[in-house]
Write a structure and sequence with these properties.
Layout lengths: L1 E5 L2 E5 L20 H14 L3 E5 L6 H10 L2 E7 L3 H14 L4 E3 L3 H7 L4 E6 L6 H10 E11 L2 H4 L4 H8 L9 H19 L2 E11 L2 E10 L1 H7 L3 E7 L2 E5 L6 E6 L6 H8 L5 H11 L7 E2 L12 H10 L4 E4 L2 E7 L3 H8 L2
The protein binds S-adenosylmethionine.
The site of S-adenosylmethionine (SAM) has 21 residues, from helix 2.
Length: about 350
Amino acid sequence: LILNKEGAVEFYIPDPQTYRSIYSAPVFYNPSMEKNRTLSVLLLKTYGSGLTVCEPLSGTGIRGIRYAIESNAVGRLILNDISKEAVELIKKNLELNGVEGEVYNEDANVLLHKLRNTCDVVDIDPFGSPAPFLHAAFRALRDEGLICVTATDTAVLVGRYPRKCFRRYNSVIRRTPFYIELGLRNLVGYVARVAASEDFSIQPVFSYWENHYFRTCALATRGAREADDSLNNLGYIWYLKKRRKIVQTLDEHSSGPLWIGPLGDPLVVHKMSQYGVYSVFLQTLEMEYSIQAPWYFRLPEFAVDGKSPTLEKTLELLRRGGIYATRTHMSYDGFKAEANYDEIARILSI
Ligand code: SAM
């Protein structure tokens, strides 16, 4: 073991020099998930205090411990891992940080079912797909609770493996220039459908993509009627030759079912951006969440003689033309706009 630091917390991890990759270490710690954990701390800060937080796939415990120390929002911390080595390490790390927490060594689904209706926050952070843990997560959640989900099976969610995507998420995803957004909406749509089957509606407050994962955090409200209403946010996105539209059924040019409602709450991410960490990123999300269209455009789609317009110029022209437009965190050459392709093309060519 070596001592490591992330955010305001010092904690033990298996010595990376001893193992060929993070996946062969006896307990899993992924330093490239730092942003995921830090942003989640900020979200908890905006969400409340005295919260019962359950992280049923804890690894080293770093996530839950950071929530407790840095967010000031945690009342009861419940950590768990199926690995005995992980559980030993979690206990050591809790003690090192003087944080009180309950630590279990169960299958996440078993624990979540036992916690029935007690958690304010359930954070699902698995290897790969969160699908196997989602039903149980809603069982553990209280009315008005927060469900947080990380998915690292990004290639599946964006439709690179169609059969696996259909098996895991029951969806069909076509090739488009805005496939990152389809992947994110595929995940949120799936969460919404599982929520509905457990009589919850969801309202995403914070969803985004980063290189190797998708993340969504949503408020969950219990109620059959609410759950029915929430399903009105599901639909299909049709794409052909740069044209996009929302449709109600699957055909050879449409993808879905997808979440076509808001991916997040602009007010929440605005608050999160005030803490001075990842502020520029959060400001981008704030603007994106204010646009209803569930897709983005790519600059090469508006190329003339093989030459793409620049992002700055494009945004300026659109805004001058009275169209709300903003860059997107999902693509360096992408932008979101409250207009269709032909309107944008017309404005850019004058
Ligand atoms: N949340 C941690 C963090 O932010 O550092 C990383 C968690 S790691 C991606 C997933 C963890 O889930 C591993 O430690 C693994 O042992 C544990 N795990 C896998 N299947 C499980 C199951 N069915 N029940 C409980 N834990 C499980």
